[in-house]
């Protein structure tokens, strides 16, 4: 009799699990179809490509690695020019097995979608682990999966889906270990925290959040902290060795060029109090505000729900001595961008569709759903079922409407981004390949598509893959002036630049203009394109829009005496 009862219980449990997986599969299929719709709309506007020039940088590194030229941008010239070497290495097999450039682009996007799907599966199990209810878990999966910023990122050709997935995995495993600290899980977490830096260096903040959550708040044994720090440090040291071996600095060139001058490290080393105050009192709150504005553009309800979720988690953490929720989700959802603003600000938190804070957008979206779920669970005890269901219906209606508005904008914006890069950088690369000698040296301010399509050796006027030029930036205390004198000294064969960026280099006494590429609807390069937003009552999206820029790319030849 007992065996029969156990069999019935197992059967019910199995059916429940199957239904749960089926519902999750439907959400995943919907998100995949949504991502494919981005690609289909793009194909009606332009040829396969990427929404920024930077993905082509990863492709160029991957191509050279695949060809046996090492971690180089110009073949056999090793350089630490990739901020996300783990993503770069993942693109190498694409160049081994896929022969044509359009097919490589498509396969790169498929890889991004696949990793994003893995991320969504983790979101589901993470939310289910917290709530023990499949419905909020499914809604959290849907919310993250239809977040327009993350949809853009999944097929951007960038490392975005990779570091978002790693972040969610770390948050999930950390939550599971809060009340069940298995040694093996702690070791896995330590390794993942270290590896996440190879996907995006800002992910080092996750290690800080992990330490605070586990060893400051939860008072875990110091012995555990030592082993965690040792494993993480070993992986971090390998990262430093990797960069130093390639470029002579423990940091990648991207940090040295883009962020070092304004960084917290520079402020502390130079003991510049004014700089330090600027970071603390201007950039930190600015980055927090920019993050909230960016989250608002995906769905205003995300902002409200994330605050509700954070308040509830903090209150539960203070109340309960067992079954305590992890604070790491709150830290990631609210402190990630402000700390980037404090430590290493660059332009803004929402720059390039928030490409540097995509994991924060994902965690805040998840936290938002949890916040509303917990709120309605509390209201259940105080309100009648009918008005509560009406409230829930209105909330879901607003959420879906906002999602549709954001998606309609983003699908068009993504295609516009790809077309902009194709019409400017890709065209320039193809022109260089067709009309210049094979051994020509090209100085450029956008190194991605031009290098990839032209197959010419490149001098990077911004310094990302030409670290030698950084000395000129420092010498003249100005990147553009430094680039000008570097070009005059090195005398490359050709220049490919935005004339507005380098007015000195457009001097026709020094250079001959060979070709001009003009595009009047540019939304992806030369400028910072951050969407403007209009809303009703601060909770319903009305319109998102971006003003395009008329851009010219000049191809010039150096007049050698």
TrEMBL record:
UniProt entry keywords in alphabetical sequence: Membrane, Transmembrane, Transmembrane helix
Keyword ATP-binding: no
Domain of life: Bacteria
Record has Transmembrane as a keyword: yes
Membrane-crossing residue ranges in chain numbering: 21-41, 78-98, 110-130, 150-175, 187-212, 224-242, 263-281, 287-314, 326-344, 356-376, 388-410
Name of the featured protein: Glycosyltransferase RgtA/B/C/D-like domain-containing protein
Species of provenance: candidate division WOR-3 bacterium
